[in-house]
Structures are given as structure tokens and as C-alpha cells.
Amino acid sequence: MQTGQSTEYQLEAKDLTIGYAQRTICGPLNLHLSAGQGVGIIGANGSGKSTLIRTILGHLPPMHGEIQFLGLPVDEDSKAFRREVAVQIADGTFFEELSVAEHLELVARGHGLLSWQQKVEEELEFFDLQAVAGLPPGELSSGQRRKVLLAATLIRPAQLVLLDEPEQRLDLRIRQKLYARLAALRQSATTLLVVTHDPQLLRQSLDHALLLDEDQGRILSAEAGAQWLER
Ligand SMILES: Nc1ncnc2c1ncn2[C@@H]1O[C@H](COP(=O)(O)OP(=O)(O)OP(=O)(O)O)[C@@H](O)[C@H]1O
């Protein structure tokens, strides 16, 4: 794919300040992510974690500074960005008329997966969704819907995966499986950026944390980030 001048880092935020209209939320932030790195975004409620994700995705303009993906300014409308970046944010949206399996099929086929039937089966099994595969997501529990969103994010190939509190509403067994899977994804050079309040996710799947605190960003080791969450 086309890349810009500097491709040393996959994702870079330089001197970034985030916020809304006249209201600054946090900054300056600096983040340099290489392929296969895993960074947790942590901080108290309201510190700006979701705002940062929205800014990285191009849904909100930076108040100052810049963000580059593969050496080019982020552009959510670019086909390359959408092909290479898989995102699970908040509660997502579903098509009322499609079943769980059909949602996964749509994503898998949309991303050109040749063995999409097998991939759909694998995701249904991984997330314990086989029994509800034929139902529309509107008829599922909130935890089951969260699992469908995660399955739809992880079924597709991506260089960068962005997740916003993936642990929410998952039972402990699925959380453990998910954290092991995220760690394995990094082994295959997928980069992870994950908003989380769970110290175990930091310890098991990530190597650094970006702490948003007192309107500033600070990079910590995963263990120091986990201890901050447990404070
Ligand atoms: N659309 C908006 N317009 C103006 N301010 C907003 C908007 N959305 C969020 N904010 C403010 O931005 C700040 C950061 O919100 P954000 O949702 O990024 O926090 P967060 O760290 O993700 O919180 P949480 O841990 O509760 O999910 C909050 O003070 C919030 O009130």
C-alpha cells in the first residue's frame, strides 16, 4: 500500500492535543507505535480515552499536533486506512434483519476472506455464540452482543486493531481467552491500541500503557499501568 515518508512507526501521534471546540481535554500526547506493539490507554473516567480514540480515527480533528498511520495523516475515508485498521468502539450498531452469523459473514466476505465459512465458524466457537448464530443481535444479551462486536472486529485481517474497553460485560472465561488471543495477535505483528480499565488485560496482552492524567499523557510499562489501575 502507499505509504508516506516515515514508515518506521505504524502509528504516530506527535504533540497531540485533543478536545472539543473550545474545550481542551488532554495534551500534549506523544505516541509511537511499531508493528506488533500493544499499548493500553488508561486513565480515570472522563480523562479523554474515548476522545483520543475518536481523534485517532479521524472522527474528531486534533486541536493541535498530528497523527499519522503508515507515514500518512489519518484519513478514515481512505480505503487503505479502512482496510488496515479494525475497530471496536462503544456498543456499535447492527443490522436488524441480519443474524449473528450473517453479520460475521458480511465482514469476512467484505474483507475478501476466501475461507470465510470456516472463519465464521471459528469465531462463533471462540466466543461461544453457536447457539445464537441464527438470531438477530437485538435478541441477545448485552454480553453476547459485545462478543458479536469483538468477533466482527477480529475476524478480519488488520495491521492495527483499536478496541474500546473490550472487557466490558464479558464473563471471566471469555476475557481470559480474549487476552491470550490478543497477545498471540501481537506475535503475528498486529498492533494493538486498547482502552481498558482491566489490569489483567495490560499484563497479559500489552507491553505499555499511555496514562491520561492531569490533562497530560505519560507512557508507562504495562506493569506500572496495571498497578496504576489497581491503586
Ligand atoms: N461530544 C462531546 N462534546 C464535548 N465534550 C465531550 C464530548 N464527549 C465527551 N466529552 C467530554 O470529554 C471528556 C472526556 O470524555 P471521554 O469519553 O473521552 O472520557 P473517557 O476517558 O473515555 O471516560 P470513561 O472512562 O468514562 O469512558 C469528558 O469530560 C466529557 O464530558
Short description:
The protein has 231 residues and is α/β, with parallel strands linked by helices.
Explain what the structure shows.
Keywords: ATP-binding, Nucleotide-binding, Transport. It comes from Glutamicibacter halophytocola. GO terms for molecular function: ATP binding. Pfam families: ABC_tran. This is ATP-binding cassette domain-containing protein. The strands form two sheets. Strands 6-7-8-3-9-10 form a six-stranded mixed sheet, with helices on both faces. A four-stranded antiparallel sheet has the order 2-1-4-5, covered by helices on one side. It has a single domain (about 10-230), classed as P-loop containing nucleotide triphosphate hydrolases (Rossmann fold), CATH 3.40.50. The protein has eight helices and ten strands. The protein starts with 10 loop residues before the first strand and ends with a helix. It has helices spanning about 50-55, 80-85, 100-110, 115-125, 140-155, 170-185, 200-205, 220-230; strands at about 10-20, 25-35, 40-45, 65-70, 70-75, 85-90, 160-165, 190-195, 210-215, 215-220. Strand 4 (about 65-70) and strand 5 form a beta hairpin. The radius of gyration is 17 Å and the shape is globular. It is of the alpha/beta class and about 230 residues long. Bound molecules: adenosine-5'-triphosphate.
**CATH class term:** Alpha Beta
Which percent range fits the helix content?
25-40%
Average per-residue pLDDT, rounded, comes to: 92
Uncertain spans: 1-6
Termini separation comes to 43 Å
User: How many distinct helices?
Assistant: 8
The hetero compounds bound to this protein are: adenosine-5'-triphosphate
